[in-house]
Automatic annotation (TrEMBL):
This is DNA-binding response OmpR family regulator. It comes from Marinobacterium halophilum. Keywords: DNA-binding, Phosphoprotein, Transcription, Transcription regulation. Residues 133-232 bind DNA. One of its GO terms (biological process) is regulation of DNA-templated transcription.
Length: 235
């Protein structure tokens, strides 16, 4: 991962907007490149790496939702959905597929730049975590959080997106303590006057679905009206 400035890829089929975004981000010190379709993006990505991808949802051919879903499974990209669709259904679908942020057009370039810097800061903090477990070392109950995965006591590794990693990281550090969704939202996304705590539920739901596919039951419990807790059954 680049130590100084994020490498940005933009998937936007409007050439004028794409060029405006590229020019602005490059003037802000980012290395940025663009593609007019998902297909062009996949071809370019093999030649030009990216850390954060800005994705227009309404793309010709393969749509932005499909790109989001695939990149989130890879687990090492920051993902920002940009769209003219302001419906809650579109927003929750985008967040559920792994978008770190969901921004509406017309995009405020200054706000976008701040969002990218904040997301990049979180990604770098995650990458700087040593590749060693942060959980307890008891062999019978160890859940090991590594750079990009959660390993179960039986040795099964669940690949994590940046959002999923951040959520598990907080819950493990506060094991057996109930963390409110407001607190989790602040730690994952930054303080907001009116936080959308449903985002935490979406991340957890996606993580549980991923775990079930590998026959893993996560020791995370939702306490109605209070928040989430990672239960260490040996304590």
């Amino acid at each position: 991962m680049n130590d100084t400035c994020a490498r940005i890829a933009i998937i936007e089929d409007n050439p004028d907007l794409r060029e405006e975004l590229l020019f602005f981000l490059q003037t802000q010190g980012f290395s940025a490149w663009g593609a007019g379709s998902a297909e062009a993006f996949w071809k370019q990505l093999h030649r030009t790496p990216a850390d954060i991808v800005l994705i227009d949802i309404s793309l010709p051919g393969e749509d932005g939702f499909s790109v989001l879903e695939y990149l989130s499974h890879l687990g090492n990209y920051g993902l920002i959905a940009i769209t003219a669709h302001d419906s809650e259904q579109f927003k929750q679908r985008g967040l559920g597929l792994g978008a770190d942020l969901y921004m509406l057009k017309p995009v405020n370039f200054s706000s976008l730049c701040n969002a990218i810097r904040s997301l990049w800061h979180r990604m770098r903090e995650q990458a700087s975590v040593p590749d060693t477990p942060v959980s307890a070392t008891r062999d019978s109950s160890t859940w090991a959080l590594n750079n990009d995965s959660l390993t179960t006591p039986s040795g099964i590794a669940l690949a994590l997106t940046p959002q999923e990693y951040s959520l598990i990281d907080v819950l493990l550090r506060h094991r057996n303590e109930v963390c409110s969704k407001e607190l989790l939202h602040d730690l994952l996304f930054g303080y907001e006057n009116d936080p959308n705590t449903h985002r935490i539920s979406v991340i957890l739901s996606r993580l549980r679905t991923k775990a079930r596919k590998q026959a893993v039951t996560l020791p995370i419990r939702a306490i109605f009206g209070k928040g989430l807790v990672f239960r260490d059954l040996n304590q």
